[in-house]
Amino acid sequence: MKRIVVIVSVLSIVMLTSCGANKRATTAKKSRYMDAPTETEPVVKEDPRVEDTTVKVEKIPFADDLINDLRARKPHLSKSTGDYIEEYNDIAIAEMLRYKIPASITLAQGILESNSGKSRLTVKGNNHFGVKCHRSWKGKRIYHDDDAKQECFRKYEHPLRSFRDHSLFLFERKRYAALFDLKLTNYKGWARGLKKAGYATDPKYPVKLIQIIEAYELDKYDKFNKKYAGGVTRVSKPKPKKPGSYIVVKKGDTLYSLSKRHNISVDRLKWLNGLKSNNLDIGQELFIEKQ
Question: pLDDT by residue (tens digit) across 96-127?
Fold first, then answer.
């Protein structure tokens, strides 16, 4: 499997996670991964800013040290699962730093939902979390038998987008708000809370996640939130896929004034730049699409 890329600015992570966020509400029906959305579900599209070939991974050495140490101590554990952890631990940590979702939970869900990266949805569609299309999805699709025959699932251009979609799914929905009051190291509370909030219909879902986390010592990755001092960084400004440019926030600029000036909605502007609040800093760069 090719090395996955991560483009997370440490400065941006600190800024974004310090901002407040409004989580959007939705109601639901039964689904293996998530409930069917209402009309208020946010539209998730491929990020137009990122070319997969223009960024590079900055490995977190002590993250790989954990999995290498585990392999040495527990050689009986699944090689494919160990490979999955080694491949995606950087992304899970980066998403934890940005959205405050335990890396252990992200990795355990990815392992469980994707069969350690071997499921058809993952291999053919880069879909690591079994996310279904729903009415709001405007991106590519892949069809797969699940609760019913040939159900529609989201297809991503790159695994990174699947991990980001997973983070946004939890972060933006009111039903999961209580989870973010838990400590990042409380993986058991997160596992049980996901089931309670309706993430999965399997009554053993929390037990399965906890078993994976404890067998592969994934909770150690959650502690990086405190001692992490660098490693996942932006190494080059991504080249936009769609025409557009970066602007610099000046004194007096607001999201509303910028949206009017550049003929783009506030919500779209926030989505394009990963903003979770309406706060802007002077000198901050924002990507603006050309219409």
Answer: 888 899 999 999 999 999 999 999 989 989 99
Type of residue at 84: Y
67, 88, 93 from 220: Cα distances, Å: 10, 15, 11
pTM over 0.90: no
Which residues have C-beta within 8 Å of that of residue 274, sequence separation ≥ 6?
12, 16, 98
Q: Which long-range contacts (CB under 8 A, 24 or more apart) does 183-189 make?
A: 184/96, 184/100, 184/102, 184/222, 184/225, 185/102, 185/219, 185/222, 185/223, 186/102, 187/102, 187/104, 187/105, 187/108, 187/213, 187/218, 187/219, 187/222
Backbone angles phi, psi at 156, to 5 degrees: -110, 150
Q: Per residue in 196-234, pLDDT tens?
A: 999 888 999 999 999 999 999 999 999 876 544 344 433
For 37, list phi and psi in degrees, rounded to 5. -80, 160
**234-240, long-range: CB < 8 A, 24+ apart:** 234/7, 234/8, 234/9, 234/12, 234/55, 235/7, 235/55, 235/56, 235/58, 236/54, 236/55, 236/56, 238/7, 238/49, 238/50, 238/51, 238/54, 238/55, 239/51, 239/54, 240/48, 240/49, 240/287
